[in-house]
Amino acid sequence: MTSPIEALRNGARGILPWLVPVAILVVWELSALFGWLSTRILPEPLAVLKAGWTLALSGELWTHIRVSAGRALAGFAIGGGLGLLLGLLTGSFRKVEIALDTTLQMIRNIPPLALIPLVILWFGIDEVAKLFLISFGVFFAVYINTFHGIRSVDPALIEMGRSYGLSGWPLYREVILPGALASILVGVRYALGFMWVILIVAETISAQAGIGYMTMNAREFLQTDVVLLGILLYALLGKLADVAARLLERRWLRWNVAYSAA
Amino acid sequence: MQIDNRELAQVEAVEGGSGGLDVEVSGLVKHFGDRQVLYGLDLSIPAGEFVAIVGRSGCGKSTLLRQLAGLDTLSGGAISLDGKARDELGDQVRIMYQEARLLPWRTVIQNVALGLPGSRAQVRARAEQALAQVGLADRADEWPSRLSGGQRQRVALARALIHRPRLLLLDEPLGALDALTRIEMQRLIEEIWRQHAFTAVLVTHDVAEAVALADRILLIEEGRITFDEPVDLPRPREHGEAHFAALEGRVLKRLMTVEALTPRNQLRGRVTEILIDKVLSEVRLLTPAGLVSAAVPTSALRELPLELGAEVLAVFKSTEVVLATTD
To answer: Fewer CB within 10 Å, N side or C side of chain A?
Structure first.
C-alpha cells in the first residue's frame, strides 16, 4: 500500500528530471515567437515538429530512418560480432592472445575517423565505406571488454567448475561466459553509443539516403528546422539504443544485485 | 559407534557401489617452485572414516587436501583410492571450499544440479531432494546473493552430496561462519556423513570442530604428520562435555609443544606483564634483546597458565619477522 503522500512524492520524482528541458523549450519557443531569435540560427520548436510531421506524412522520414538504422545495425553486427569472437578467443587462449593482442592494441589507437581518406580510396564513397567505418569503430569497444571480461572471471569458480566435472563447452556456458557477461555488455553499450557518432560522420561524407543525407540536403536549402530534426533524431536513436542495452543488462544480469535493483 | 559406521560403509560399498573410499597416500611430496610444502607424507584412511586434519596455517594441510581433490599435480609420491590411481575414481571425490563458490548467475537449485547428467525433470527432482536434505527446499529458485553465509555453505554441501561422493573433502568450510551457525553445520555434516557413510577428510584450524566431528585427528607440522590420535567419544558429541574438553586440551597442547620444539628463532626471557583480552592476550617479556611483546590466544593461556616472572622461551617464525621503527 502506498499512501497518497508517497504516491505524490513518487510522481514528483518522475516529473522533476523533465522540468529543466521543458522550461528550456518554453523559453526557446517564446523567444522565437517574439523575434529575439532568428529562424536562420534556430527555428522555433514548433517548426521542427511541423517539419517532422510533413516529412513523416510524405513517408520520406521513415525511409531515412530505416536506411540510417539499417546501416548502423549492420555495422554494429559486423564489428561487434568480430569483436566478440576475437575477444572470446584471445581471452580464452593464451596462444591466440600472444599472436593477436599486440597487433589489435596497436590498431586500437587509430581513431576511426582518421581512416576516412584511406577508406574513401579503398571503398569509394559507397555503403561499404560506411559499413567499414562503423564496424571499425564498434569493434574495439566490444573486443576489449570481452577480453577483460573473460580474463576477470573468478578463478575460484573455474576451479570449482572443473572439480565438479565441467570442462570444454559446459564449463564455458555455465561459468566463463556468464562471468564475463557484465563486462561484455558494458562494451556493447559503449559500442552502441559510438556507433551513432561514426554513423553521423560517415553519412555526411556522401549518401543518397539516411538522416545524414537529409540534414546535409536541408543545409543546402537553409532548412534549419529539418537540420534540427535530423540532430534530434540522432539523439533519439542513440537513446533508444542505450535503453535497449540497459534492458538486456537488466534481463541477463538480473542475478546481480547492482542491476536487479536499478 | 565408529566401528558400526565403518562396517555399514563396507556393506553398502559391496551392495550398491556406494559407501566410502579407501584412501592411501604414500610418500607425498609437493613443492611450489623452491618452496617445499609436503615432505613425503604417508597416510591411510579406511573407508567411511571421518578424519580431521589440524595445524597452523601454512603447514601444508590444505595442500594435502587439494592433492586429494586432484586440483594440483603431485611433485612426488602417490595417492590411491580403493587401490586404484586417484584419477580413475576422480568423479567420486567432491570438495567443499572455505567459500561456498556458488555461481551467482544460477539459482540455488541450478547450482546444486551443476554438472549432473540426466533429463531436466530427473535432475530437478534430485536437486530438490538434496536441497531438502540440507533444509533449504523452500529457497530453490532464489539467487545465491539472497542467502546468508551459512545457507550458502549448505547449498554447497547439497551440491557436493548430489554426486553421491564416496570421499568428501572439506577445506575449512565453516571457517567464515559465526559460532552458532557453525555448530549447526557441524551437526548437519555429521548427520549426513552417518547417513551416506562416505569417507570424509576435514581440514580445520578449530580443534573443537575436529574433536566434535572426527573419528581421528591428525596434526600436520612442517609438511609431516606429527600427531595421530583416534577420538573415542560417543556421537553426537557435546562441546562442554568433560572428555571432549580434555581431548581438545590435549590436542591444543600438542599443537603448541610441537611449535615450541622447533629450534629456530628463540628469545629467552622473563614474563613482566600479562594483558588478558577476550580472544588474543598480550604477554610482555624482558629478554636480553629488550622488551618483547607476544600475542597469545587467550584459550592457550588458560590451558598453560603463565606467571609473572616465569622463565619462558619465545619462538617465532623467521618468515613472520617484521622490522619497524619505534619512537
So the answer is: N
